[in-house]
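Take a careful look at the protein record below. Let me know whether the structure tokens fit the sequence:
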Amino acid sequence: MENLVKAVSEKMEAHNARVAAAAKGRATRLANLIERNGAEPTEGKSGKLHAPHDGYIWVWYWFDSDGFEVKEWEATFMGGEFLPESKKAPLFDGNRFETAFGGPVLRIDYVEADMADQLAKSLEGVLMIKPGKVFEARGDLVCHVYVANKCSEAAKLVEDFIMAPRRAAQKTREAEQAAIYATAESCPTGRVEISGIVLTTKWQESMYGSTFKMLVQDDRGFKVWGSVPTKMGYKNVQGRSVSFSATIQPSEDDEKFGFFKRPTKATFNEEEVA
């Protein structure tokens, strides 16, 4: 954690230096523009600026919460015309977290609640991190974590810190699955009892609508692909041990892979769901 805090602090210091340089550069450009025009804008009673003479060139910006320019306009105005004001760019997607953070946000899902709290406390005053509502997933207390993403390099350091153990575990699982698949039995055909691990899930679109699919590696090594039984639900399916009965059609391209349909008697471990 100490190394993470140090690395994030360094990234944020460099980011803040760029912010200051951007603000200074914009002020210099504005001063040069006024000098070129030969006069400063006239301020009306309402506080709004307007052109002091015909042919007045004016530049205005949209900028993000850190002062970096998002968009720039330049136009020529006639004397007395109001001059557009530079302002903060709107948050087009209306994301409530972006509004709270004052800029873009990186969301990291299913983070252990204790780790989320530790990150928020350790990086307080350096990088804004807000843990979401705590809930239970597969017996663990977890939450989604929201990280200020104004400095993407700093946010990525936090993401990599959280994801490193997951990625290592995933790499180990993939190696184990590959070893099993190398010695797998051929995919059977007909009505078959399947028992194995859900490797992945995916929503698949077709002309008939959306279907929730899963890839299962049977304990005998072969893999099958098909629709997730409705009563299994749509959450916390991937990575779980399942058993079900289904009609299997082996693939023509891979003898260790097949497609299943009409699954019944589906279970998560010992918990019957259909």
Summary: The chain is about 30% helix and 35% strand.
